[in-house]
Amino acid sequence: GQQVMQIPQYQHVQEGEDFTTYCNSSTTLSNIQWYKQRPGGHPVFLIQLVKSGEVKKQKRLTFQFGEAKKNSSLHITATQTTDVGTYFCGASYDKVIFGPGTSLSVIP
Amino acid sequence: SAVISQKPSRDICQRGTSLTIQCQVDSQVTMMFWYRQQPGQSLTLIATANQGSEATYESGFVIDKFPISRPNLTFSTLTVSNMSPEDSSIYLCSGSGQGGNTIYFGEGSWLTVV
Asked: I need a labelling partner for B18 at 20 to 30 A (CA). Which of A46, A68, A79, A98 fits?
């Protein structure tokens, strides 16, 4: 079946350091989505990537979709305490399957 | 983005009882889904709510335990039946709009079964 892996499971960084989470699918995706869930909150849509090799930026966040459309990454430059939360990738097959998430904590 | 309203937002339920969660979406939403998020876990799709017909359940979820209704395009309910402590979880209503499958989530219903 379709599997979505995400690493690392946890990441602790000093404020100002960079952070990257990686998402991998066992099969080719039609698109991939990224979500952020703050502690105690619900997942909030960040972005969708559709094209092979696509790169999108949102301020300090950079999202990449792999050439084979099987993997993706989210990179945060110079983390801030407001970046704390769990980041999920959502892999689109015939339905959206979510990765296990990467929990980011930022030490001030 | 779509607006998705869900209630109750939080509840404490007795073992063996059932609870129905209601979800209202705005007109941008065409597909509706129900997810479960157990403590510290990722989101697991329970079922796709189909308008006017039986929901499409994912492996491991059955209609008797999680009956779902969607009487019209913008409203759906999920019932968690005969609850046990293992059902303590966040239940999330979600939807996607025309032309794409980006998932928008409601704020979730946090259920604790005691």
From this structure: A98
Q: Do A90 and B103 touch (CB under 8 A)?
A: yes
Three-class secondary structure of residue A83 per DSSP:
helix
CA distances from B79 to A56, A87, B40 (A): 39, 28, 22
Q: Would an 8 Å CB–CB cutoff place B60 in contact with chain A?
A: no
Model confidence pLDDT, tens digit, residues B44-64: 999 999 998 899 999 999 999
User: Could you give the domains of chain A?
Assistant: 14-107 (2.60.40.10)
> Which residue type does B32 have?
M
How high does pLDDT run on average in chain B? Answer: 92
User: What span, in angstroms and rounded, lies between the C-alpha atoms of B94 and B48?
Assistant: 10
Token pair of A65 as six digits: 């979709």
Range of the domain at B59: 4-113
Quote the number of domains for chain B: 1
CATH (domain of B90): 2.60.40.10
| Cβ(B4)–Cβ(B22) below 8 Å | no
Record: contact A88-B90, CB cut-off 8 A: no
Q: From the CA of B102, how many Å to the nearest CA of chain A?
A: 7
Q: Which residues contact A40 (CB under 8 A, 6 or more apart)?
A: none
Amino acid making up residue A32: I
